[in-house]
Amino acid sequence: MVRGKTQMKRIENPTSRQVTFSKRRGGLLKKAFELSVLCDAEVALVVFSPRGRLYEFASSSMKNTIERYKTVTKDNLGRQTVQQDIEKVKADAEGLSKKLDALEACKSKLLGQNLEECSIEELQSLEVKIERSLLGIRAMKTRRFEEQLSTLRQKGDEVAAGQ
C-alpha cells in the first residue's frame, strides 16, 4: 500500500479528525521522549485536545522547563530591545546630522557664502527669501523707532507739564 502526501487542511469528518488526533498525538509524544533520551535534551510538550483535555510530556520538571523558557525569552527580548534602541538612536543621529548639514549650508548661502555652486533658480529663491527677511527687519525696526518716539514724547509732555 502506497501512502500519499497528506494535504494540510482541517479534516472535516469529526470521527476521522479524532482518530488522526489520537494517532498523531501519540507519535508526537513518542518523538518528544526519543529526542530527550537520545540527545539528552530538555523537552517539554503541552497539547490540548479539541475537547480541552491536556496531554503533556516533560523530560524533567515541566515547571522548571517553563521557567527556563521564560528566562531565555525575556533575556532575548531584552537584548533585541536594546539593540533596536541603539539602531534607532543611530538612525536618528544620522538624520539629525544630515539636517544640521543642510541648515548650515542654507545659512551659509543666506550669508552670501558658497554661492558658486548655486543655479540661477536657487539664487533667485535666495534673493526672494532675503528680501522678505529684510522687509520683516525693517518693519520691526520701524515699530521700535515708533515706540521709542512715543515714549520720548510722553516724557517730553511730562517735563513740559511739570514746568
UniProtKB/TrEMBL annotation:
Location comes to: Nucleus
Q: Which residues form a coiled coil?
A: 79-106
A single GO cellular-component term from the record reads:
nucleus
The alphabetical list of record keywords is: Coiled coil, DNA-binding, Nucleus, Transcription, Transcription regulation
The membrane spanning regions, by residue number, are none
Please give one Gene Ontology molecular function term for this protein. Answer: protein dimerization activity
Ranges for domain K-box: 86-163
Q: Has UniProt tagged this entry with the keyword Transferase?
A: no
| InterPro entries listed in its UniProt record | MADS-box/MEF2_TF, MEF2-like_N, TF_Kbox, TF_MADSbox, TF_MADSbox_sf
Q: Which domain of life is it from?
A: Eukaryota
Q: Which residues form the MADS-box domain?
A: 1-61
- Biological processes annotated in GO: positive regulation of transcription by RNA polymerase II; regulation of developmental process
Q: What is this protein called?
A: MADS-box transcription factor 50
